[in-house]
Automatic annotation (TrEMBL):
Pfam families per UniProt: GST_N_3
InterPro entries hit by this protein: Glutathione_S-Trfase_N (IPR004045), GST_Omega/HSP26 (IPR050983), Thioredoxin-like_sf (IPR036249)
Domain named GST N-terminal: residues: 1-79
Keyword Transferase: yes
CDD domains xref list: GST_N_family (cd00570)
Keywords on record: Transferase
One term of GO molecular function: transferase activity
GO cellular component: cytoplasm
Protein name per the record: Glutathione S-transferase
């Protein structure tokens, strides 16, 4: 198995941490998707032109959620139930909106402007963080290691990129602190 991604992607990082915790053997190849030559590898394997993707023999799996399900099937690991899937969707929605903000900043757009697109992203970020702050202490959340890892990767990426203020989200900050000392978190830190 070869996992392609970037060291700074929260979606890639969650898979790397998940594999490390379960001692799953795989090869990891970094891709700079903005480099013309490396982008060719991305385009060849993923028509959506997104990372991560996993190559296992002839099988190519795109999207972190689908890769996680593939690993859960292949290695008989626990699957998410519907409530957990919904929480993962919320984590991903927040991640996606933050990525849109980051791409806007890198495109030299005024991401603080009072325009529909950025207003919707900021609203989604605020509301999903508030929701996740309440949900990350529930049994549904705490009984799912993949959710815990995914939320940690989101929160640490927010701090790494300075994209949102997490003060006031005490449960999220506690979750971040709890996972920050984990060996797999240290091994995959995007700051390294």
């Amino acid at each position: 198995m070869i996992l392609y991604g970037s060291n700074t992607s929260p979606y890639v990082r969650r898979l790397r941490m998940y594999c490390a915790i379960h001692e799953l053997s795989y090869e990891y190849k970094t891709l700079n998707i903005f480099d013309a030559n490396e982008r060719k590898v991305l385009v060849e394997h993923n028509p959506a032109r997104k990372i991560p993707f996993l190559v296992c023999g002839e099988q190519v799996i795109n999207d972190s959620n689908v890769i996680a399900r593939y690993l859960q099937d292949k290695f008989s690991l626990p699957h998410l139930n519907w409530d957990q899937e919904n929480l993962l969707t919320t984590i991903n929605a927040c991640n996606d909106s933050l990525i849109e903000i980051l791409l806007g900043q890198r495109s030299e757009l005024d991401t603080h402007a009072d325009v529909l697109f950025f207003n919707l992203q900021r609203e989604r970020i605020t509301e999903t963080l508030s929701y996740l702050d309440k949900q990350c202490t529930t049994d549904v959340f705490l009984n799912c290691e993949y959710l815990q890892i995914s939320l940690y990767c989101l929160l640490d990426w927010i701090q790494f990129r300075s994209l949102a203020d997490l003060s006031g989200f005490n449960s999220l900050l506690s979750h971040l602190e709890k996972w920050h000392v984990h060996a797999s978190a240290k091994e995959t830190d995007p700051r390294s």
